[in-house]
Amino acid sequence: MKTFLWLILFCAVSYTQSLAQTNQKNRVIILTDIEADPDDTQSLVRLLLYSNQIDIKGLVATTSCWLQNKINPESIARVIRAYAKVQPNLLKHESGYPESQELLSVIKNGLPVYGMTGVGDDKDSEGSEWIIKVLEEKDDRPLWISVWGGVNTLAQSLHKIKQTKSKREATRLISKLRVYTISDQDDSGLWIRNNFPELFYIVSPGDYYATATWTGINSYVKGIDNSTISNDWIAENIQQHHGPLGAEYPDVAWGVEGDTPAFLSLIPNGLNESEHPDWGSWGGRYALYRPEFDKTKKGGSIVTIAPETRAIWTNAVDAYTPYVAKAYGRAVKLDTISFTDNKTTLWRWRDDFQHDFAARMDWCLMAYEDANHPPVPTLTHPEELTVKSGEAFVLDAFKSTDPDGDNLSYLWFHYPEESSYKKKISLGAENVHIVNLKAPVVEKKETLHFVLKLSDKGTPLLTRYKRVIVTVLPK
Hints:
Blueprint: H1 2-24, E1 26-32, H2 39-49, E2 54-61, H3 73-90, H4 100-104, E3 107-109, H5 126-135, E4 143-147, H6 152-164, H7 167-175, E5 177-181, H8 188-195, E6 200-202, H9 231-239, H10 243-247, H11 261-264, E7 286-289, E8 312-315, E9 318-320, E10 323-325, E11 332-334, E12 339-341, H12 344-347, H13 350-363, E13 384-388, E14 392-396, E15 408-414, E16 434-438, E17 446-456, E18 463-473
Helix pairs in contact: 2-3, 5-6
């Protein structure tokens, strides 16, 4: 009887925890000009490996400036069919991976026309109607639109909402939208920003990709190890000997996974806070302002560029000095080279998310005990602290664990770009589970963002994070 009661209690707790985790998932609809460039297929392979942690509500085949008169939904289906063959093994490593039929059912078509020629009365598509349908669901979570190509399918949804809904209802629906576009790949993005100034919109505007934050995912950076975006690394860790899903990952043509930053910030890893683009994430860091048009360059596409009429979430700059391993003494030290630009906000995490990708590719075929799984950072105190000016406080992740029993490495650092207090704060020996600090002397309320980077020593090395926000009050 006791065993039976315990089993009921265990199932109830497990269900509650599962429900809580589900409610925390970010909802997303993907707009993809798949087949315009192999990188959409690359990004889709990665996305499906996180489909248990991101709630994929739609996969819409669209056009772009690079694919103006055709859509390719069958290419989405092909990758999902490969996922179907490894989904049972993925479930051995983490719960929640959806059935392939569920994913196939949310493949939708946009119109096979370019940009604003697909926006207006009687220009509805399966994709634009689907966006509205999902928006109208009784779900308080924001709906992310992750745009890998042109954005005219969303533009049509917004056009119809404005034409057919009351002002109050239109405002309510639009307030639930969050958009991240990989630059501007048709002329409807600028139209959206001009006509819906209240819409949450992340973009490196225009079509000149060389200065865009998202290109930090595939930029060769002089002075660091770039091996995790090399063709050899991709072949060994993703494409070959990793089952049917890895076999669908195409070779690089222009740049590896240029669309992936549009959903990287939605992965729950302890660092990412999707509602706060200015806090920094695997997808980069962005600030809310109206960029200067005279600094916007024209790229090589047909996309129209013009001055922004409103503030958007766009390129922000980090000053970053990497830590490097030491052979003797303290395990890490600051490198002798530093970087300051907007791409740094993304590539500074690149090895971490590439290793994470590689581990999940291992999950496609490996037994649980043969693969690596991410560590679990756990603090001994709240994630938000309030202290007085000059007061001592402690950051401690003593309770952190690893599911595979691996040894753990800790690295605490102050993230000044996220903080209101910008001066450098020394943490002493920052590679231990506990650091003892003293709040700076302040004359007004300030915030300090500290990040714990917790890594195991498995293969591949995996990392998770904890962010601690310390509010410092003047005496």
